[in-house]
């Protein structure tokens, strides 16, 4: 269905976008309801209003304009809008959503970074299987086996906990050699990630979705070439 | 010089033979001597023994201490869990005292003689005193303590939506750590107790410099001013994480004359000297992750760089890890820090 952007639709979508950027949960909810009443396509509103806004929030976070409190409240506005719009998204078409399994590694109870990454992936339209924090290594393997996700993302804040990463990466790859695994967290670096056998590394939540897509592209290129 | 003489000279601005080597080291000591990591936190005698023996083995100058990053949670009626798994190094939160808004009003100031792990911390300090070690106490800064009382995500949301609740938490946290400081000074005497104040939650990886100014700075400043006024021997203020944009504010917090500012890998030693060099001894900043996963050559190189940058800092410099030595650090990697200080640290 082609969307003819009339002025009112444009204003409403922009209003929804602004509501997320400005952390305004109530306005996001209200405008989402108005959008439905006006007969505007819910999927269009989600992608062009909410998701685009959250992409911008990711940029603002990466360039140190927004910090964790701001991102959390932007996400609250996003979810308020999604709650209204999602049930009205027409299911259909051949589009398959990308999936990610995510969790904070065993021994580590810090999950704020992981939760920010989760928000970014959900905002980008991925299906997120969030295992929470202090996730036993075998749980990652089981969940990947169950969901056959495109990406497994591991988070750690503690240097002692990050030692579990090479072990779980090996365990996951032994069962599913094709899955892409990315890691993140304060004590990690790209070099450490590589030494652990990870396929990707994100320095912060704002970079995570882009890194995941680039990682999948790199792995696809590698498969094609071989 | 003995380690005690070296630390004394460092604090008094006297002549030093070499750069002191301080270690932020706890769980590693337990594993090093065959104790469970939890012993560092639940058994003061074993904790002291493990730390004394490890210090003897590796030759660093800092003295044993008792503390952990999630301090405050248990003391304010939350629950913590002692480390017991292969990948755990310190007590962690099991249940937070504050989950929703109504929980804030129910909070009361803890009794410092009985709350949480404080009886064990005091037992440890009595052992320090008995063994000729300067009694010390470790607390979080008020903002870190607020984040140990209240789920951090909730705290972050309240910073914008319900700042009055955050101020209430910060007021309680500040009053509590003042009570702790007073208790230790009353017990051991004016000028005899040193304090470590860890403030990792104020990192710019969580909050903006603007939020630091509004929520961290006033309470941190008040705390430092008051404990210096009641006779704290010296402050070691540990500010790990990305704190560069907070440094102009940190530089205005009284640290003592001198204090010790302990920085993580994110803050360059030259930058630290620029902001703190006139008032503080600079300590840092070898990354724990590199200690754990790096080669001895890498670590030696980093130590050399750090020593060369810090050696002539106006009020002094000590080689130190940027945060806690990981439990599973290869022993040689810790030794190599001592080797570096021996090779490059002499005056």
Oligomer: heterodimer
Biggest sheet, spatial arrangement of strands of chain B: 3-4-5-6-7-8
Number of strands of chain A: 5
Rough shape of chain B?
A: globular
Biggest beta-sheet profile of chain A: 5 strands, parallel
Round the mean pLDDT of chain B to the nearest integer and report it.
Answer: 97
Number of helices of chain A: 10
Counting helices, strands and paired strands, the structural category of chain B is: alpha/beta
State the fourth-level CATH superfamily of the largest domain in chain A. Cobalamin-binding domain
Order of helices and strands of chain A: HHHHEHEHEHHEHEH
Q: How does CATH name the architecture of the largest domain in chain A?
A: 3-Layer(aba) Sandwich
Give the biggest beta sheet of chain B.
6 strands, parallel
Number of strands of chain B: 8
- What is the CA-atom radius of gyration of chain B, in angstroms? 19 Å
CATH fold assignment of the largest domain in chain A: Rossmann fold
The span between the termini of chain B is 12 Å
Low-confidence stretches of chain A: none
Give the spatial strand order of the biggest sheet of chain A.
2-1-3-4-5
Radius of gyration of chain A: 19 Å
* Distance between the amino and carboxyl termini of chain A: 40 Å
What is the percent of helical residues of chain B?
40-55%
What does this structure look like?
- The complex is a heterodimer of chains A (226) and B (347).
- With 226 residues, chain A is an alpha/beta fold.
- Chain A is 59% helix and 10% strand.
- Chain A has helices at residues 7-21, 25-37, 42-62, 68-85, 112-123, 137-147, 159-162, 164-175, 190-195, 205-225, and strands spanning 99-104, 127-130, 151-155, 180-184, 200-201.
- A five-stranded parallel β-sheet of chain A has the order 2-1-3-4-5, with helices on both faces.
- In chain A, strand 4 (180-184), helix 9 (190-195) and strand 5 form a beta-alpha-beta unit.
- In chain A, helix 1 (7-21) packs across helix 4 (68-85), helix 3 (42-62) runs antiparallel to helix 4 and helix 6 (137-147) packs parallel to helix 8.
- The longest helix of chain A has 21 residues, at 42-62.
- Chain A starts with 6 loop residues before the first helix and ends with a helix.
- Chain B is of the alpha/beta class and 347 residues long.
- Chain B has a six-stranded parallel β-sheet. A two-stranded antiparallel sheet of chain B has the order 1-2.
- In chain B, strand 4 (194-198), helix 10 and strand 5 form a beta-alpha-beta unit.
- The longest helix of chain B is centred in the middle third of the chain and has 26 residues, at 163-188.
- The radius of gyration of chain B is 19 Å and the shape is globular.
- The two termini of chain B are 12 Å apart.
- The A-B interface holds A 23, 64, 67-70, 72-73, 76, 105-109, 112, 115, 158-164, 186-189, 192, 195, 204 and B 27, 85-90, 92-93, 152-153, 156-157, 159-161, 204-208, 211, 241, 245, 287-289, 291-293, 323-324, 326-328.
């Amino acid at each position: 269905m082609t969307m003819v952007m009339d002025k009112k639709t444009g204003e409403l979508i922009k209003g929804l976008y602004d509501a997320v950027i400005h952390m305004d949960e109530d306005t996001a909810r209200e405008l989402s309801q108005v959008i439905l009443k006006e007969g505007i396509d819910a999927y269009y509103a989600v992608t062009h209003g909410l998701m685009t806004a959250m992409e911008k929030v990711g940029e603002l976070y990466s360039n140190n304009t927004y910090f964790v409190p701001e991102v959390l409240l932007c996400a609250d506005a996003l979810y308020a809008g999604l709650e209204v719009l999602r049930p009205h998204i027409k299911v259909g078409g051949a589009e398959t959503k990308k999936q990610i399994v995510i969790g904070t590694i065993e021994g580590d109870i810090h999950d704020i970074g992981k939760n920010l990454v989760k928000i970014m992936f959900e905002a980008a339209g991925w299906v997120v299987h969030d295992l929470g924090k202090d996730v036993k290594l075998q749980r990652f393997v089981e969940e990947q086996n169950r969901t056959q996700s495109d990406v497994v993302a591991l988070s750690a804040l503690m240097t002692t906990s990050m030692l579990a990463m090479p072990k779980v990466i090996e365990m996951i790859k032994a069962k599913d050699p094709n899955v892409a695994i990315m890691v993140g967290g304060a004590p990690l670096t790209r070099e450490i990630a590589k030494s652990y056998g990870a396929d990707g590394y994100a320095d912060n939540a704002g970079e995570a979705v882009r890194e995941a897509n680039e990682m999948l592209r790199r792995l696809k290129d590698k498969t094609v070439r071989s | 010089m003995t380690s005690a003489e070296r630390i004394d000279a460092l604090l008094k601005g006297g002549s030093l033979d070499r750069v002191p080597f301080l270690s932020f080291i706890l769980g590693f000591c337990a594993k090093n001597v065959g104790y469970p990591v939890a012993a560092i936190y639940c058994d003061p005698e074993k904790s002291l023994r493990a730390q004394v023996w490890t210090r003897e083995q590796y030759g660093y100058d800092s003295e044993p201490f008792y503390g952990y990053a999630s301090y405050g949670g248990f003391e304010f009626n939350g629950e913590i869990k002692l480390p017991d798994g292969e990948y755990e190094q310190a007590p962690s939160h099991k249940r937070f005292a504050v989950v929703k808004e109504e929980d804030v009003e129910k909070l009361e100031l803890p009794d410092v003689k009985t709350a949480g792990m404080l009886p064990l911390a005091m037992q440890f300090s009595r052992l320090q005193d008995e063994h000729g070690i300067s009694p010390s106490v470790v607390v979080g800064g008020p903002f870190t303590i607020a984040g140990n009382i209240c789920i951090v995500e909730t705290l972050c949301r309240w910073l914008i939506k319900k700042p009055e609740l955050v101020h209430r938490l910060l007021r309680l946290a500040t009053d509590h750590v003042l009570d702790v400081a007073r208790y230790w000074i009353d017990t051991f005497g004016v000028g005899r107790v040193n304090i470590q104040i860890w403030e990792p939650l104020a990192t710019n990886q969580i909050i903006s410099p603007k939020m630091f100014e509004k929520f961290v700075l006033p309470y941190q400043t008040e705390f430092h001013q008051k404990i210096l006024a009641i006779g704290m021997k010296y402050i070691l203020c540990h500010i790990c994480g990305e704190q560069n944009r907070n440094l102009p504010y940190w530089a205005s917090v009284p640290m003592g004359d001198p204090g010790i500012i302990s920085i993580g890998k994110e803050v360059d030693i030259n930058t630290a000297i620029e902001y703190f060099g006139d008032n503080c001894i600079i300590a840092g900043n070898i990354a724990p992750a590199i200690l754990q996963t790096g080669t001895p050559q890498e670590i030696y190189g980093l130590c050399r760089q750090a020593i060369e940058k810090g050696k002539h800092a106006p009020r002094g410099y000590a080689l130190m890890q940027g945060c806690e030595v990981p439990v599973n650090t290869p022993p040689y990697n810790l030794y190599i820090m001592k080797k570096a200080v021996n090779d490059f640290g002499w005056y």
